[in-house]
Design goal:
18 helices; about 65% helix; two-stranded antiparallel sheet; about 5% strand; Fumarase C, Chain A, domain 2; Ribonucleotide Reductase Protein R1, domain 1; single chain; mainly alpha
């Protein structure tokens, strides 16, 4: 509010709407105001709200003439500007923490470029991949969330000031100047829209909700992989909790809290959106005081989970040997066997698929693992379905069912081949480097607003 007051005062003087002497008088009152006292003060029925409380305090300091500070403005355009200033800070903080998580994910992935694992579809073993390939998918998803948060910031960082109640003013105000002074990227052009539109908050809530859902899916996997039955991950000691009765327990509560907090973030965001639903298109409390805190809380929670998971990922241990062993002893590689039969036997993929499917069914029903998949078994199946002897060599068969070969041969863009994943992670780093610079520049820009405003006002006062 004080920044809005200062920017508006500077604009009034620069537009010659008030005199230099009057501007300096009001500036002196503003600079003398006990802001900390206002922050800690309690509501009093003697004034309607904080806007009027500040006006009363300013009048005590400067007399009735300070009332001209309210020329050509309303609580409507002031309030929306304040909400947008608060929201942009929270969006930027969330983006900054999200970038930190993204960096942790990339670094984790780089440590596990060659860590073989089985990927799942429909909760069932699907195909071999690497842990880095999986994490790269998660960081791609997070990158899109960060792009959406940045888009929400862009939509939010527009100034409503100068719209007044909803029709602007008969005074020659300069809306672009107040926007510039307060670090906005521009103005909301239509004055009615400036005080009535709530989609800037709705966009932030929608993005927060989707980001919480996206990250929550990853968290679900982490919790599963931390189970002793799965045995893939070990959460570092600072992020686990022991049982008060069971000495062996290492409960991954950091990830559990992340899961519940993300649900909370989604819920608060959804509440804000529901509160906006079917409200009249105008300046109303529904889309202001009552709704805003839900958006803020959603972003605060999301930002805290980003920071928490960043620490967890930096210290997470992986049972690399167990993941590789599972990949080597599963049927997850047999897609490549079918592909190989297409190459060596001249079969259609559907024929090759039928042959391999029959082999897997027979071995599974007999209780045999992939170790029972030998040349004779494949030859028999090929002759039964394709009526031809097998041309595939023993060496080609061994290679076809190797999870390492499965991964390395899939070097198509977006595949799990280590070099391709490394390329994708490097591309992510370049894109996110730009995003990090934007976040840093934005943080510095927002932090400089108050200092620049005070520099102008104090310059006036020093000339007196």
């Amino acid at each position: 509010m004080m920044a809005v007051n200062k920017a508006h005062l500077i604009m009034l003087r620069e537009q010659h709407i008030i005199s230099e002497q009057e501007a300096c008088h009001i500036a002196s009152a503003i600079q003398s105001l006990d802001v900390d006292g206002l922050r800690s003060s309690e509501y009093s029925f003697h004034v309607e709200d904080l806007f009027y409380q500040v006006e009363v305090e300013l009048e005590k300091l400067g007399g009735p003439s300070v009332g001209n500070l309210h020329l050509a403005r309303s609580r409507n355009d002031m309030g929306i500007a304040m909400y947008r200033m608060v929201l942009r800070e929270k969006l930027n903080s969330t983006i900054s923490s999200g970038l930190s998580l993204h960096r942790s994910l990339r670094e984790f992935a780089l440590r596990h470029i060659d860590t073989l694992m089985i990927a799942h579809t429909h909760t069932q073993q699907a195909q071999p991949t690497t842990l880095a390939h999986y994490i790269c998918a998660v960081s791609d998803s997070l990158e899109r969330d960060l792009n959406r948060l940045r888009s929400a910031y862009t939509g939010c960082n527009r100034s409503s000031l100068g719209a007044a109640a909803l029709t602007t003013s008969g005074f020659p105000v300069c809306r672009d100047r107040t926007a510039e002074l307060l670090g906005f990227d521009g103005i909301i052009e239509n004055a009615y829209d400036a005080v009535s539109g709530a989609d800037y908050a709705g966009e932030a809530a929608s993005v927060a909700q989707l980001a919480a859902i996206n990250l929550g899916r990853f968290v679900q996997d982490l919790l599963l992989w931390c189970t002793q039955e799965y045995g893939a991950l070990i959460v570092a000691a600072p992020y686990v909790q022991v049982s008060s009765i069971m000495p062996q327990k290492r409960n991954p509560v950091s990830i559990e809290h992340a899961r519940s907090l993300l649900s909370s973030a989604k819920g608060d965001a959804a509440t804000a959106l529901i509160m906006m639903h079917n409200t009249p298109f105008g300046d109303i409390v529904d889309t202001e005081d009552d709704m805003q805190p839900y958006v803020w809380r959603s972003l605060n929670t999301l930002e805290s989970v980003y920071r928490l998971l960043s620490e967890v990922m930096d210290t997470l241990k992986v049972n690399v040997l167990l993941l590789r062993e599972r990949a080597e002893h599963s049927f997850a590689t047999v897609t490549e066997l079918a592909d190989t039969l297409v190459r060596t036997e001249g079969l259609s993929f559907r024929q090759a698929h039928s042959i391999v499917s029959r082999i897997v069914t027979q071995l599974t029903e007999s209780g045999t693992s992939i170790s029972g998949l030998n040349w004779d078994v494949v030859n028999t199946a090929v002759q039964e379905i394709a009526a031809k002897p097998l041309a595939l060599t023993f060496e080609q068969l061994e290679q076809a069912i190797s999870p390492e070969h499965f991964v390395h041969i899939r070097h198509v863009r977006g595949g799990p081949n280590p070099e391709e994943v490394a390329r994708a992670l490097e591309a992510q780093a370049l894109r996110l480097g730009t995003q990090e610079q934007w976040s840093l520049d934005t943080t510095n820009r927002l932090r400089s607003v108050d200092a620049k405003l005070d520099l102008i006002l104090n310059g006036w006062l020093n000339r007196i």
